[in-house]
Design brief:
- It is a single chain.
- This protein is α+β, with helices and mostly antiparallel strands.
- The chain has one domain: SCP2 sterol-binding domain (Nonspecific Lipid-transfer Protein, Chain A, 2-Layer Sandwich), CATH 3.30.1050.
- A hairpin with a 2-residue loop joins β2 and β3.
- α3 crosses α6.
- The longest helix has 18 residues.
- The radius of gyration is 16 Å and the shape is globular.
- The N terminus is likely disordered.
- This is Sterol carrier protein.
- InterPro entries: SCP2_sterol-bd_dom (IPR003033), SCP2_sterol-bd_dom_sf (IPR036527).
């Protein structure tokens, strides 16, 4: 195994197979990087792979027992080198995720930069604190947005 102690952390990340990284390991990696490093890392094909993997895992990490009878469409707008939109639909104890914006009206829309998104979904960012610090912008149901983390099994680093 190569010693990466002198390497650039973002270069080390670029070589990862994100599909093989567990949620807990992902949380540990994100925790170890600054917002600047995370932002530098999230470019091009790597950004596409990371966002795809994170949203792809939402179905697996969904906690239907916590959601109960909740019905909601959550739109995520991640800003960075380009705006990426994903939608999470929670209904009848299931969670579905799609890339892109539908014509449906979301109950809440969450907007944040790449680094803040990675911190939020890895359990390294508190949504209420991020909102108060204006790192997370919410349009629509703020109560739903502030409680979203309880509907997903989010690792702690």
């Amino acid at each position: 195994m190569a010693d990466n102690s002198g390497g650039n952390a973002t270069d080390d990340l670029a070589g990862l197979d994100f599909a093989a990284v567990s949620p807990a390991e992902f949380a540990r990696i994100v925790k170890g990087l600054s917002a600047k490093q995370l932002t530098e890392f999230m470019h091009g094909e790597i950004r596409t792979r990371v966002l795809s993997e994170v949203f792809g895992r939402m179905r697996e990490q969904f906690r239907p027992e916590a959601a109960g009878q909740l019905r909601a469409l959550i739109r995520w707008k991640i800003t960075g080198e380009s705006d990426e939109v994903y939608e999470t639909s929670i209904a009848a104890g299931t969670c579905t995720v799609r890339a892109g914006r539908s014509d449906a009206e979301p109950r809440t829309t969450l907007m944040m930069g790449d680094a803040d998104f990675l911190k939020l979904v890895s359990g390294n960012g508190n949504p209420v604190t991020m909102f108060m610090m204006r790192k997370l912008r919410i349009v629509g149901d703020v109560g739903l947005a502030s409680g979203l983390t309880r509907y997903f099994d989010i690792p702690k680093a």
